[in-house]
Amino acid sequence: MSHEIVPTHExxxxxxxxxxxxxxxxxxxLALMQAPPLERSVAFYRGLIEAGFPHVVALxxxxxxxxxxxxxxxxxxxxxxxxxxxxLLPEARHQGLGxxxxxxxxxxxxxxxxxxxxxxxxxxxxxxxxxxxxxxxxHEGVQRRATLIDGVYHDAHxxxxxx
Length: 163
Hints:
Elements: E1 4-7, H1 13-24, H2 38-50, E2 55-60, E3 63-72, E4 81-88, H3 97-112, E5 116-122, H4 126-134, E6 138-149, E7 152-162
Parallel strand pairs: 4-5
Antiparallel strand pairs: 1-2, 2-3, 3-4, 5-7, 6-7
């Protein structure tokens, strides 16, 4: 099936929130274990969009099956940096959608004037790590015990892409 990659719009928010909850409940790919309340997620999405930060979704018809966003980091001295977040629903993985979402977000980040994109990826998420490496993200270190999920610590790799 052909999926469409588009900038996130208000009409996507509820489906995006459902997708976020599904991926979060896998307890593997995100910092969240479940989606926050819908109104908090909508405020986040609106805030990014209104500030001109990249937020794109992969659609299967009207249903969001994946997303990629680049959000601001704290501090005026770091205004050139964005923090990348990306995820796909289980049935949308291994179809090239992650690469398409990532490319769209990178292009929009550079167009917005960012010159550095940072991310953190769990050390055991080999597919995502390989994708980031393919796009030129460089390893900047290991974040030991970066997450604690169901009583188990997981290391993560800090990575960044420079323009």
